[in-house]
Specification:
This is Hydrolase 1, exosortase A system-associated. By secondary structure, the protein is an alpha/beta fold. The chain has eleven helices and eight strands. It folds into two domains: about 210 residues, Rossmann fold, CATH 3.40.50; about 40 residues, no CATH class. Strands 1-2-4-3-5-6-7-8 form an eight-stranded mixed β-sheet, with helices on both faces. Helix 5 packs across helix 7. It is globular, with a radius of gyration of 19 Å.
Length: about 270
């Protein structure tokens, strides 16, 4: 059975949905970006229903300022209170719960990495983790490049050089030469991890929870994460025995195809066992 309810968070009222099941291990789905709790094309609602059929209660919610919830939308990096309140709400709504796994995609994965361990969560599933300072993957080239590794910048420019439309833009003067030169300089520079990526590296290095990292290998956000993951500053994170990684040969950020959905569902069910 699916039912809707509300719970309090920092003086605001958050809307939530619970797909009920008899199992004592439950799933908390944290929405990414500015998506409502049903997800893109109702993908998270469908995932919740499938996991509940497998015997696990599943809760989704809208963080402050999103969807049916009140308050101001301050972005994923201000969602620590929302996550903690959601954990308390799910444990109250499902008193038989003994273990809670949280799943997030994109910046929801990043917020869970940063704030999940202190919220009373028992395990994490983090997909296509967001590592850029901007909260949009349509960021200006300079803004995006500022937090990308040199390898990621090289990959980006190689992809552009293989695109006939980009070559046409270059030949016709449609490319900002100043940005191109700056980008090529960064592509040859030594990798530095700063800002959000550095915070995530530290969080993953010290992650005390069993955590499964999921990556759609051809998704741009996942590729940026993998470039950081493979860099020297992430060495302590790669050595953390609590972290495992599963890779999917897909470019779908939201696991949109039926095969991608099935793969994601199986990885989550593995974490719930």
């Amino acid at each position: 059975m699916r039912r809707h309810f509300t719970f309090a968070c920092a003086g605001e009222i958050l809307a939530a949905t619970l797909d009920e099941a008899d199992g004592s291990t439950g799933l908390l789905i944290v929405s990414g970006g500015n998506e409502i709790r049903s997800g893109a094309h109702a993908g998270m609602a469908a995932l919740a229903a499938a996991v509940a059929v497998a015997g696990h209660p599943v809760m989704r919610y809208d963080r402050r300022g999103i969807g049916d919830s009140t308050g101001e939308n301050a972005g994923f990096d201000s969602s620590a209170d929302d996550i903690s309140a959601a954990v308390l709400a799910m444990r109250a709504e499902v008193p038989t719960l003994t273990r809670l796994v949280a799943f997030g995609n994109c910046d929801a994965a990043s917020s869970l990495a940063l704030y999940g361990p202190a919220a009373g969560i028992d395990a994490l599933v983090l997909a296509n983790m967001w590592t850029l300072e901007s909260e949009s993957d349509e960021a200006d080239e300079d803004e995006a490049a500022a937090t990308m590794t040199a390898g990621a910048i090289r990959s980006r420019y190689l992809a552009k050089l293989k695109d006939p439309r980009e070559l046409s833009r270059l030949a016709s003067g449609g490319v900002n030469i100043g940005k191109l030169v700056r980008g090529l300089k960064q592509a040859t520079a030594k990798t530095e991890v700063t800002g959000l990526a550095a915070r995530l590296g530290q969080a993953l290095a010290g992650m005390p929870l069993p955590t499964k990292l999921l990556v759609a290998e051809h998704d741009r956000t996942a590729m940026w994460f993998l470039e950081h993951w493979d860099s020297e500053p992430f060495t302590p994170a790669r050595a953390n025995p609590n972290l495992t990684m599963a890779r999917l040969a897909s470019g779908s950020h939201s696991f949109a195809s039926s095969d991608d959905k099935a793969w994601l569902r199986e990885r989550i069910l593995e974490a719930l066992k």
